[in-house]
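Epoxide hydrolase: structure tokens wanted.
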Amino acid sequence: MLNDTPESSSRRHFVGAAAAALAAGSLSRLAFADTSPATGIVTGPATGDKTALRPFRVHVPESQLTEMRRRIKATRWPDRETVPDESQGIQLATLQGLAQHWATGYDWRKVEARLNSYPQFVTEIDGLDIHFIHVRSRHDNAMPLIVTHGWPGSVIEQFKIIDPLVNPVAYGATASDAFHLVIPSLPGYGFSARPATTGWGPERTARAWVTLMKRLGYERFASQGGDLGGIVTNIMARQAPPELMGIHVNFPASVPAEILKSLTAGNAMPAGLSDEERHAYEQLSANFKKKRGYATEMGTRPQTLYGLADSPVALASWLLDHGDGYGQPAAALSAAVLGHPVNGHSSGALTRDDVLDDITLYWLTNTGISAARFYWESHANFFLAADVNVPAAVSAFPGENYQAPRSWTEKAYHDLIYFNKPETGGHFAAWEQPMIFAHEVRAGLRPLRA
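Answer:
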């Protein structure tokens, strides 16, 4: 038992007060830590009009890259997985190998220069700064097209399709297939501002994209998207603004309501399905049972993912894992990181540095959690039949979450102007197979030119 003399009590009071002051000081420093790192330079208009198209250049201070490398090297690693495969998640050796290259051999400045080789802008829409790339074709009558990335992607996903779509003649197509491209960063992603209030989901984003295209002077345009970008594009099509000519999606929402109900309940496959429909049901069943953990967490508790803002390696593991191990749809990412095909799945044109470019963008802009919140803001089911009346083109890649059957697609997209099942490509089709993807966009939207 303590001898509680006035002197010892006074000492304890002093020590307690000092500890409290120290803790308060530490918490104060944490509370005011920089959550908005400087990553670019915006040239504002003389009038101060935030809705003006303000030129933007990426410029990451070297100190931020040094700090990122320090954090990677200081990672406290967990034990190795207790299984010989990836069934428990991203394997320790895989992530340690990636981290070693990230900390010592990776060069962010290459992708920074690539970003700055394209015209980039920021403009305020509905109170939020939106970043976008805008590349105009030199060909007359080029079609304006807004292309939206998904998660865990960014505008970096679209690099390899820009020139094939803007300059089609150089890639064996004709001048009549040319596009003017607008490639925005989703709200809370990349160089777009992080929403400070609720409400920035796919519906509001779709309306903002229409405002953006009109602000750029495009009275008529088409929209393209995959993953979350496909959701935004489908919703835009349902909103049916008069300026929208039509859409192309490579992540179609085509599952009939009764099929989705059966899948959600975990029921056995319904009778009477065609071979294509059975294949899609099997893919979706596996997806619903084993591969939606990341989406469930981001859709319900995104703020809990503090590690995404604190540890580059935590961020990388979260962005890489889709709950599917070395299967689809993230097989191309795994193959690129490992440097060889996995379970017969190639990375295509996707490289390890491509993957790190994207992860590093999330880290430098501190958008891991703000990007996750887009799932929390999404209230539409990603798979339920889209019920779209505007002209729609669909490319059903074999490595997608599910390869949409034509029978389902025709019922979901009531004016289906194009449907194709490419032989190669997956969830990140623009990244993995840019030439095939560019061909699909050209062919899919060609009927709108007539």
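The CA atoms of residues 429 and 437 lie 6 Å apart. The chain has 18 helices and ten strands.

Cheers.
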